[in-house]
Amino acid sequence: MAIEQTLSIIKPDAVSKGVIGQIIDRFESKGLRIAAMKKSQLSREDAGEFYGIHRERPFFNDLVDFMVSGPVVIMVLEGENAVVENRVIMGATNPKDAAKGTIRHDFADSIDANAVHGSDSIENADIEIKFFFSKREIH
Ligand code: ATP
Ligand code: MG
Predict the structure, then answer these.
(1) Cβ(22)–Cβ(107) under 8 Å?
(2) Global pTM?
(3) Mutation test residue for ligand 1: of 93, 96, 105, 112, the one with most atoms within 8 Å of CB
């Protein structure tokens, strides 16, 4: 299997709950390495561009409002099959559907406030990593 990089965001709900460390532990204990990390407050412009693929969806404005409602932690995760591995560790988009032991099952309250973002493909991971990090910030 190939070593991949993927983008992870710990969303404002999880940051304000004080579970950054517990979420990072899920990644590290399953073999994903933190290659880059920063805490940031997204602007509306950043959040809208980042989730631009959903611009026409009815939940777009709520999604942007939520993503700018507090600071986030943005990471590049690296490891074997990292894109799919991260999505498995995260669980389903709606925490009600997320399997036991996944981050969204254990830490998320609703489909809006669902604790984490993860890139959904290798192509999008590359775009999303470049959106937030320069090469010299990734180790
Ligand atoms: P993310 O991109 O944040 O990792 P995801 O890939 O699991 O989540 P997407 O389909 O990309 O899900 O949706 C992006 C975000 O938009 C979701 O995390 C969720 O908060 C919100 N969202 C998606 N579908 C709905 C919906 N039907 N109703 C309300 N909010 C939704
Ligand atoms: Mg997505």
Answers:
(1) yes
(2) 0.97
(3) 93
